[in-house]
Every structure is written in structure tokens, then in C-alpha cells.
Amino acid sequence: MGDKLILDGKKVSNDVREALKPRIAALKEKGIQPCLATILVGDDPSSATYVRMKGNACERLGIESKRIHLPAETTTEELVQVIQDLNNDEKVHGILLQHPVPGHIDERKAFETISIEKDVDGVTSWGYGQTALGFGLYPSCTPAAIMKIMEYYGISAEGKHAVVIGRSPILGKPVSALLLNANATVTTCHSYTKNLPEIVAQGDIVVAAVGKPEFIKGEWLKEGAVVLDAGYNPGNIGDVEYESCLEKASAITPVPGGVGPVTISMLLKHTVDAAERKLAEME
Predict the structure, then answer these.
(1) What is the homologous superfamily of the domain 31-116 according to CATH?
(2) Which of these is catalytic: 8, 119, 121, 273?
(3) Is 81 marked active-site?
């Protein structure tokens, strides 16, 4: 087991955050404090925890966290108005709508209201389209985290076969696009895919983004595959069966402590990027 590379997300996350500190200080010297607005609708406990973690991470770095908590009965129109107000607020650089929102709200309409300049979580169709075409400023944060972990550990996607299990609009689809742009050959699998184990067995890089605990088994993997587990299920369990996958993989992200911490760091980075772009427009 000595030659196994455990892809330590905490190390990558700390590296990203350390690099942000001088940039934030430089912005503050010019009178700009990067600001991320987070919107939470309703009282889902795990969503509330995520929002609190993001806010605390902001504050530790000197990024302002503007937290907006709306009641569960908020209408789509009311939520859209809140987002439009944040779009128009010069002091806000990034907007994050915590999802899922209550079922009666048109989540897609709310996402699409977020200004492209402030879409630091990569949730708009415009942002996704730009990411797919290779010039997106702010890819969805979990896909961005996966690419950052690979970059940090010197894992190239070029010429490799990447198998992505999952096709959600903020994870499976955008990470497939980013890997394709990095010159991987990409197979995107989903609930209708037949012979999934045989397809996973072809992957030099396997991205688990299916939202089912311990769904991907070690015996499915090609010997020496790189496994990036973007799953986060109750009890801090990923989408891959860690012990059996560790046997076959050359490199693997643990859960917790893998993709998760880097996801939040990419959100912070995108917020600082947005503040710097705002300053450049003003100068």
C-alpha cells in the first residue's frame, strides 16, 4: 500500500487559501473587500451547515460573508427579487444560492437570475456554456476542485480515458466538459447506462458523482486508476467503496478530506477573482 497516493484535499485547500491572502490584502488596500452573498431558503439542517461552513471560511480569510436566510414559504418571485437586489449591489462580488431550495420554487429560474459576473458557483446555463466552450470564468466549484486536485498532484488528463459517473448540471456535466477540454477522452455514465462496471473498468480516471454511498466497487476499477470521489453522503461516506477501491487505485481522494475542502476553497477563489475583475473595471 506504500505506493498509493492519497489525494489530500486539505493540503490542496490550504494551498489555494494561502495564495488568496496577499490578493485579498491588495484589494483591501484599494478599498475593496471581496464579498460573497449566500442565500438560504428554508431550514434544511444540512444546507444550513454548508452555508455556515462557507461563511466561516470567508471570514477566516477576510472575505465578507453576507448571509441571507429566507423563510421556507418564500415564492420564486420573492427569491428572484432578492437575487436581483444582490446583482445591483456594487459591494457584492459573488452570489451563492444554496440548493436544494423548497420544492415549490423554480430553482432554475432563480439560478438564471444570478448575474454572470457574480455566478461564482457556476450554476447559470450561461456559465456552464462558457465552461464547456473553454473560457468560463467560474466553473462549478466541485468540478473546479477536482481539476485543482489533479493539477496539484501532477495528474494529467491528456490522452487518458476519464469515466464520469453522474450527469448533474453542477457536477457530472461540467466536470465532463473540463476533462474534455483538458484533452481526456470522456465517457459520462448515468442511471440509464448499461454495463456500468465494464465501462468503469476502462477508466484511467474515474470521477464518482452519483450521490449513492459506496456505489462504485473496487473490482470495477482498472489497476492503477485515479479515483476522484465527489460523493458526500450521510455519515461522511463517499460514492466509492473506499477500502476496495484503494486496493486497485494508484491515487484516490478520501471522504471526508478530499474533494470537499477544495470545493469551498474554489468558491473563495472565484469570489476574489470576481472582486479583482470589478477593480480592473473601475481602474
Answers:
(1) Leucine Dehydrogenase, chain A, domain 1 (3.40.50.10860)
(2) 121
(3) no
